Each structure stands twice: as structure tokens, then as C-alpha cells.
Amino acid sequence: MTFCVGMKVKDGLVGIADTLVTSGSECITARKVTIHQHGNHSMFLMTSGLRSLRDKALTYFSEVLEEGDENFDKLYKSVNAFAAMVRRVADEDKKALAESGLQFNLYSIIGGQLERDKEHKLYLLYPQGNWVEVGQGTPYYLIGESSFGKPILDRALTYESGIEAALKIGYLAFDATRTSASDVDFPIDVVIYQKDTYVVVEERYEMRNLIHISEWWQDRIKSSVSEISSDWIQKALSKIPKKNNI
Predict the structure, then answer these.
(1) N-to-C CA span, the chain
(2) Do the beta carbons of residue 154 and residue 5 sit within 8 Å?
(3) Nearest to residue 2, comparing CAs of 129, 150, 131, 142?
(4) What is the pLDDT of residues 136-145, one digit of tens each?
(5) 245 Cβ partners below 8 Å, 6+ apart?
């Protein structure tokens, strides 16, 4: 499985992707995010799904960019170009995968800003090649293992959150997923885009870099539980029959 989250806040974009890839009993570390930028063209792309589908679609997409990146002056045009490559891979491989009992399951998060975009953009691309754009109401997309981190993002992240706050919240969502899912783990790749800069920056974090944050959060959760008022519980506890003294 995979954990990838892309977040859009007023000041820019933040993406976090784990790097654990499992194939049968084999586990390896591999990048799930790529960066494509030159001049006023700046974007990142994160994927979840079969590694072979990702590699093939990205290879085709890289060729498209090499042959005519100047044709893409808005991010949605690049998204459409990558979607076309996803459909091409589907035409080539989907039937064979189905015959082997595998699904064509390539999901993608694409974020960035190109020269004619009035603001930074974030898109979720489905395996069928159709896409949706993030809105301010729910300013993030999760792909891969999404159930464990989603509650933290829903409760804490807003469009008005700063980039630093978004990165903290995104990390806690990853940490919740890592704690509960055996196929999501460190290292994590972080990408940050400050609006109107046309530069995506990237950093990789190992467990040793951030485990103190995880431990602090674990202690905070435990202490917070003990601080919750117990008055409302007494109504239920009062119905428990008392043991007879023998």
C-alpha cells in the first residue's frame, strides 16, 4: 500500500509520500514522488498503485515533456497529458493484469503552478484518466491507505493553515497511518511549493529524524485522554450491578 497526501493552503502546496514498496515478501524503498520544473513551469506528481504502471506512465510522460513542455502553460494541460499516458498504459496492460487477477489501480496527485496559472493548483487523477481539482472546503487529497490519516486532516487542516502547519498535520496523518498499517513506513519524501515562486523544494526524512515527534504525539494523546471529563460516564457506570459480598 501507499501513503501520499497533497495539501493546498493559501500560501502554497505541501506533499508527503512514504517510500515503502512491497512485492510479495520483498520490501524495498522507492520514490513515489517526482518533480518536473524549469523556468516558470513547476509541478510535482505522486502516485499509488502497481509500481510497473507508475514507471511506464511516467516514462511516457517524460517523453511528452521533453518533446513539447512549452505547450503546457497551465497545470491542467500537464494533467491532461499525463492522463493520456495513463490511458495509453491502460490500453496496453489492463487486460493482461485482469487475466492475472490484478487491478489497474494507478491514482495520482499532481500539484504545482505553471506560467499562466493565476494560483497554485492541486489535482487528483483517477485510473480512468479523469480528474478533480481540490477546493478550499477540503484542501487535500489522500491516495493509497487513506482511512487512518483522514480524521486528523479533516479536523485540523484548513485552507487558511500555513505551510508549516500543513506539514505538521500531514506528518501526523502519516504517523497515524504508519502506526496502524504495516505496509506504510519511513523514509518519507516531503515536497513544498510556495505560491508564485515556481520552485518545488524537496526533503527526505528518516525515522530517526522525526521519531521524537511521534513519541511526543503519542504521549500527548494518552495525557489528553486522562484529562477528559468523566461526569458523563457515571450515568453508564451507575447501571453496573454491584458484586455481592460473600
Answers:
(1) 56
(2) no
(3) 142
(4) 999 999 999 9
(5) none
218 SS3 class: helix
Instruction: Render pLDDT for 31-89 as a digit per residue (tens, 0 to 9).
Output: 999 999 988 999 999 999 999 999 999 999 999 999 887 779 999 999 999 999 999 99
Amino acid in the structure at residue 218 = Q
User: 3-state DSSP helix/strand/coil percent for the chain, to nearest 5?
Assistant: 40, 30, 30
Q: Can you give the pTM of this predicted structure?
A: 0.94
Distance of CA 150 to the CA centre of its chain: 10
Calculated CA dihedral for residues 96, 100, 105, 106, nearest 10 degrees = -50
Question: φ and ψ at 216, to 5 degrees?
Answer: -60, -45
Domain ranges of the chain: 3-237
The H or E element that residue 125 is part of is strand 121-125
Q: How many CA atoms lie within 13 A of 141 on its CB side?
A: 23
For cell 518545488, name the residue: 200
Residue 121 host element (H or E): strand 121-125
Strand partners, 17: 4, 189
The third-level CATH classification (topology) of the domain covering 3-237 is Glutamine Phosphoribosylpyrophosphate, subunit 1, domain 1 (3.60.20)
- What pLDDT, on a 0 to 100 scale, did the predictor assign at position 27? 84
- Chain centroid, CA 15 distance in Å: 6
The answer to whether 2 touches 177, Cβ cutoff 8 Å, is no
